[in-house]
Amino acid sequence: MPFDRKEYMKEYRKTPQYKKTKRISNWKKYGLIGDYEAIYKRYVNTTNCDLCNILLCEGLKGGNRKCMDHDHQNGQFRNIVCNTCNQNKSDTKKPKNNKSGYKNISFDKRDKVWVYRKQFKGKDLYISNKDKIKILCIKFAAILLYKY
Predict the structure, then answer these.
(1) Inside any domain, residue 18
(2) Percentage of residues of the chain with pLDDT beyond 70
């Protein structure tokens, strides 16, 4: 019988090892740093939000979903919280690369362009341009277009 990679991967994705590897990989992708083994152990064993004490559910969309709270400036893990607390607890400092003085506009050093990132009605808007003035005009046009 030949080896069926598709079937093997289907079964492997159900294993605890795959779920752990995938979760830690996502944490790294979104900037979380620290002792991943210890953080994962705490994540798996946490049943209630560290801030509001609501019972957390795995994989749900909405308020009770389990989230990792971390400092967006340095990547350090803070708490395991519900989705509601995670959205309400925003970092007060602007990102380091935001030299524009405007919310949602930053400078991408690698590509040497100004970037406007925003979510409108559940859709991600990502626009880049070398000219800061054009990005500001796009931002204000988008505000007018989507607000009214």
Answers:
(1) yes
(2) 84
Domain holding 120, by residue range, is 105-147
First to last CA, the chain: 62
DSSP state of 106: E
The arithmetic mean of pLDDT across residues 7-35, rounded, is 89
pTM above 0.70, yes or no: no
99 in a domain, yes or no?
no
Cα-Cα-Cα-Cα dihedral sign, residues 94, 98, 100, 102: negative
Backbone angles phi, psi at 132, to 5 degrees: -60, -40
Task: Clarify whether residues 26 and 76 are in a common domain.
Answer: yes
Q: What are the pLDDT digits (tens) for 119-140?
A: 766 777 788 888 888 888 888 8
Kindly report, residue by residue over 48-88, the tens digit of the pLDDT: 999 899 999 876 666 688 888 887 777 788 889 988 888 78
Q: Does residue 64 form part of some domain?
A: yes
Q: Could you give the number of structural domains in the chain?
A: 2
Residues found in the chain: 148
